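Appendix B. Raw example, untouched.
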Amino acid sequence: MHLLYNIVIQLYGSILKISSIFNPKAKFWIEGRKDFFLKLPIIRSQNVYWFHCASLGEFDQALPLMNLLKEEDPTIYILVTFFSPSGYLHYQKREHKADYVCYLPLDTPSNSRRFIAHFQPKKAFFVKYEFWANYIFEAKNNNCKLYSISSIFRKDHRFFKKNGSFFRSILFQFEHLFIQNEESAVLLNSIGINNYTITGDSRFDRVIENKKNVKPNGIIQIFLKEKKAFIIGSSWPKDEEIILPLINSSFLKNKFIIAPHDIDQNHIDQIIKQITIPYVLYSELENGKKYNEERVLILNTIGNLANAYSYGDFAYVGGGFSGSLHNILEPAVFGLPVIFGPKHSRFPEGEMFIKNGIGFSVKDEIELKLSIDKINSQKELLKERTTAFVESQKGASIKIINYLKRSL
């Protein structure tokens, strides 16, 4: 099975090379790994802690633990690797304590041997869904202690299938798994793994940390003039199909802040064509354009959304029509009730929000209007509940670091 895995990985790499000719994301993936081993820094530290993240969301999950570890021991050398270009290209928008950040080369036996031999990590933390077999086996063979943090498992994962013995063997390499929920615990027990602790999702720690460090945004303050906005965060075209008609209507008197997931000019132009009320681009105000009482502010820049939520009344978070729901914790930490699309089964926080009455799943414009009416009818109560719920979920990172201290 390991041989078949390696063949599939090589095939995947070949497909990416071909795709890079016409796919910008694949091109970043390939070019970012070009001459990888020639660019590596000289490592003098004997205490390398390696964090591997798929993308920016997983980086956010790892950040609170990285910060705590650095506070405990400033001599730790923190290495961060990314699988996705969207993580690697944007991680610098976050304040972090990483010493070196790079892509993770394709998971082949030779790459994993060279990588582990160079960095010689003492501990490795794989975040959420990331389980690359060759790197994990090679790290374990080199006496690196392996941990999975904020991991979450579902019954359709390959670890729990009848023919999943190879993938189950990957999980058995871990010293400990810090998992998000009880369902994951039941699944791990079913395959004989009990070295886990239910710690919850460390993203709650991250958004609480962000709230404490939020900085005023002069441009948004000028736009809002001390009013609150309906924030649309990380929207995709399918989200905009139900939101933009509502913005154009007289249903709401709010001001609106739209932060598209994709800020390339084509997408921004698509949004602009559909808006019939006065709007302004963030970049225009940033470059000195005078605010002229526009009702819609389009964030056509990166890095402003998380703080923009602090100016919100309630929020819609995109990705719920494709099954790739974006971070609903970012608005919730500021007390904003959250609306999102119908495909959220892979995101337990969505289910938790709905169960606690602070999240609203909608599939069309009618349900969107009904949800907004419900939020407006009990806005202050919902804000209190939302804030209290987020606070009740904090502490995953502290639980992990306390376990690591005990294990030492």
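End of appendix B.
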